Amino acid sequence: MNQVKTAAFFDLDRTLIDVNSAILYARFERRHGRISSRQVLSTIGHSLLYHLNIGSIEKAYARAMKHFAGALESDIARWAKDFFEEEVGPRLQPGAVAVLQEHKRAGHILVMLTSSSCYQADYACKAWGLDHWIANRFPTESGRLLGTYHKPLVYAAGKVVHAKAWAQEMGVDLSRSYFYTDSYSDLPMLQVVGHPMVVNPDPKLRAYALKSKWELLDWRQPKVAVPRMQEA
User: Fold this and answer.
1) Going edge to edge, which strands form the sheet with 7-10?
2) Largest Cα–Cα distance of the chain, in whole Å?
């Protein structure tokens, strides 16, 4: 009989790191002359709306991907690596380190569940010691991006779709698993796992978490209260 497994899922933006990586990436791309100042401002605007749970991230994502239509996937992966090493890697929140270590000690599978790109998620997992990632993937043809993304987007209810498929394949029991996030948009996934964990939340999620008596965590300091964890 196969052993039931437990996973700990982690959002990236404003959870494992203290900012929205899309804004950092837009500025990174601007410094290298690959996008315009107007596109940077557009990204910042969409990111603010996303943080306030307003607007459509699907439309913003579709618009952003059109810009990369025809780009070599190898170039995108290389730029993502440079970006991660320069801008994202050093931003792992101090409090996240202890929690990642405790889940690993408990024998849980560590999974990044993010609406960021598969390239970014892959580098982050390798750098920070997570086991798997679930992130947005992008169709290619002859090694070049088609300018679209695989649906559903790994966002909101889409995260649940992808997480459930992954969990079924891996033999993971979501009712025993954990999910850490800052965003109200992740409420569908928080409601699926047995241990919803709220990290430096946006105002809407904070209100919902307090009403639901969910645990609130502050990862801005190295010394944090590590949640009680059941062994795998």
Assistant:
1) 132-136, 109-117, 7-10, 178-181, 195-199, 215-217
2) 57
CATH number, position 52: 3.40.50.1000
Query: Mean pLDDT by 10-residue block, N- to C-terminus, for the chain (232 residues)?
Result: 85 93 72 57 51 63 82 91 91 94 95 94 96 96 94 94 98 97 96 97 96 93 72 68
Query: CB neighbours (10 Å) of residue 194?
Result: 13
Other CB atoms within 10 A of residue 22 CB: 22
pTM > 0.85: yes
8 Å CB contact between 14 and 20: yes
Kind and range of the H or E element at 113? strand 109-117
- At 218, is the secondary structure helix, strand, or coil? coil
List the structure tokens of 104. 């690993």
Indicate the pairing of strand 140-141 with strand 144-145: antiparallel
Instruction: Tell whether 230 is covered by a domain.
Output: no
| Amino acid at position 97, single letter | V
Please state the φ and ψ torsions of residue 85, each to the nearest 5 degrees. Answer: -65, -35
Which residue segment(s) compose the domain that 92 sits in? 7-217
> How many domains does the structure of the chain reveal?
1
